[in-house]
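Appendix B. Extra example for self-study. Work through it before the problem class; the solution is given directly after the inputs so you can check yourself.
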Amino acid sequence: MLTIKNLHASIEGTPILRGINLEIKPGEIHAIMGPNGSGKSTLASVLAGREEYEVTEGEVIYKGKDLLDLSPEDRAREGVFLAFQYPVEIPGVSSTNFLRTAVNQVREYRGQEPLDAVKFLSLMKEKMKLVEIDQKLLSRSLNEGFSGGEKKRNEIFQMAILDPALSILDETDSGLDIDALKVVANGVNQLRSSDNATIVVTHYQRLLDYIVPDFVHVLFEGRIVKSGDKSLALELEDKGYDWIKDEVANTAV
Amino acid sequence: MSKDNEILEEFTSKEYEHGWSVDYEADEAPLGLNEDIIRWISAKKEEPEWLLEWRLKAYRIWENMEEPKWANVRYPKLDFQKVRYYSAPKQTKKTKSLDEIDPELLKIYDRLGISLNEQKRLQGIAVDAVLDSVSVGTTFKETLSKLGIVFCSFSEAVQEHPDLVKEYLGSVVPSTDNYYAALNSAVFSDGSFCYIPKGVRCPMELSTYFRINAANTGQFERTLIIAEEGSYVSYLEGCTAPQRDENQLHAAVVEIYAKKDAEVKYSTVQNWFPGDKNGKGGIYNFVTKRGICAGDNSKISWTQVETGSAITWKYPSCILKGDNSIGEFYSVAVTNNYQQADTGTKMIHIGKNTRSRIVSKGISAGKSQNSYRGQVQVMKRATNARNFSQCDSLLMGDKCGAHTFPYIDIANSSAKVEHEATTSKIGEDQIFYCNQRGIATEDAVALIVNGYAKEVLNQLPMEFAVEAQKLLALTLEGSVG
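Solution. Structure tokens for the complete assembly:
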């Protein structure tokens, strides 16, 4: 589904990603872990097409297409979804209105008829249960005055509505208490299928107790320095990131 | 920044939709202004002597006045002798019913999406159509007259209801009020008149659609709304003009008189030609709009969506004279390219427990300048007066300007006055967030702008709100690559 080859990216001339290689198949969950500043969020942003980042080398093939060649909205319409670490507030625009606009633009791109208000509302009702989100929240301005937990829940709700092929969760666990974390993880797990894939970007292994990854990759100084299964996350939790840093330093010598 | 620049670039390529004009035989006054021209206009309209005298008096006042310079707008000095003060499509006879209106004129309105055919109209809105200097027709007159409501052109009111006109004309905006009000009083040609009798709730929206068609012609319309005790009316005003290279003057006066327990809601969607992307042409919109809450518990609410005009100079105001009376002002003003807007309101609290609310949302793009200018005045005897003002500015790009000039003048210590102001830019973060959900940048901007203006748009009657939203979206259409 997604093949990343030797991806280099920089922001304002400072290189952040220095050669990422990654292969993701449908049905898989990949966790990207690493210390602060290792490039985790940059990777998520580059995949989603944020303009500030300049890709200097490498390629990303998504469903046989050159992902980097697509505009951010076309990536979304092709099924790439980014759950933001800091969801943006849009005053005066209700979540419902926002999402209906999004869904219908995606449908238009795919040559489907737009959903009328009734059909859209029934789709919302169905997905609301998944993340235990209150309808009242959805009639309020998008993310405005939402608590941290509500914002993250709303991201997963949007993911449920848009039904993406590739979801990237950027530090979705940050700022969540354990109950909210369980709700969010439960939503992600229910959306999982053999056709879609998920990238979970996180600093802590806590989230991975609830969203169990097939692969864990450790990002350090813009490269994936170690890959393994779920046990790698536990090992990191146990030993901290210094252990990885030392190991990288040693191999370099 | 690159995205902002794109928005800026594309914004300037947007074209004005109503820029076409139609040729018809016109009955025109000679160019220029003097007492003879005023006599000419008055005679043309077969006006009574008192009205001619009233005009001439206003003209003499105007002659001795100076053009105001305090507004935050720049333009070359106007030559009032190069303006035509009257132009009307020639009609062979006076039309008594809509069926007799020249079909060619009806076509103009059809093309603007304003059908004057009552059968084709949505029920619930009566229209007075003003073309250049005259009203070409008013719909639903008969339906309304059964309730005692008078809704007709100003000229007709002068003939049919001279006592009402004489009593209220100039009672809210005297001809001495300001330069453009004096000019309008001297040369006004037509406009709408409405009278709502005691205790009547007007069952439909009343609306006037102003269209300037002729070249070199100014439009000076006069609107007078009288709401008797306990009555209610919602009034709408829409305007467009052809795309022309020279600037055209539009100096209107609107007066609203609300008696005890009466409520008047006045909404405007102003879409005059704003000039081209180099700032050439466009309408100078110098308008005086004022209402008086003369009776206790009365209410006047102004809502305006200002997207057009090269220069806008306009402060719909409320004089809150009756105790417990309420004044409201809701405004969205969009400026682009070289447009300049200096707009806001005045709330004059005279009665006890009077309340006012001001919500102003400015949107500036291109090289435009957008100013909010507002005055809240609480007089000595206005105990417990309340005012809340919110003035927000949204900037697109870095070549435009947003300014806020609030004046607060309090003479009673029990007054409570609040003022909030914010300035923001459409964030790339917001646009990227929308993009990431599959929404194209252009639609994202429309979504964000409509959200920003929502509080004001919500005040508009339903049909107008949809139109206004479309207009905002249209203004922004093609605003990004």
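Self-check: Chain A has one domain: 2-252. If your reasoning did not lead you there, revisit section 3.
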